[in-house]
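At your convenience, could you comment on the folded chain following this short note?
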Amino acid sequence: MSGCPKLRISGLALKASPALADPLCMKATVKKILVASMVTMNLAALGLGTYWVFISTVGYEYPNKITEKKLREPASLNEKFAQAPLVYTMDNLVVNLAGVPKRMIMVQVNLDMISPIAFQEIMDFDNRAKARDRIVRILNDKTFDDLETIQGKLFLKDKIVSEVNQVLSKGLVKDVYFSAFVMNSEL
């Protein structure tokens, strides 16, 4: 193979001597050209693959790592208010009902507040006392027959909402729930 002339590359054209007409020299030359082109194509494919991987990862953000320090940080009240319903639960009220025979009612009232501002307002001691007093007065005016039916309980809820909303200046009560509602039948 040492007898084959070398190819000279000038510009884009290959120049070879007439001795390349020899089949053995031709095979060796073609083999060199094929190897050089395969190496070039492999390098181009490797570069293109690297480019695609790089482009596909541009803008990728790694997820936040949860660490023990982050788990120990207290959640803010605003986040808790945004996720949870704002329900203020009053203590049990035991009240005498109007009418004869004398009867009693034990009720636990839960006020569903419309906003965090309303919740903070009902948590104020003066407003809590005023709201509790209004509810006691409403219950004192009711008879056993008024509260015995479902419709009577719904009217009671509406009355409590309107009376407590009069106590509050900034917030509103959205709804009232009874978590305990017990009336004795006769003393």
Notes: The chain is about 50% helix and 20% strand. The beta strands are 8-10, 13-15, 87-89, 93-96, 104-113, 173-183.
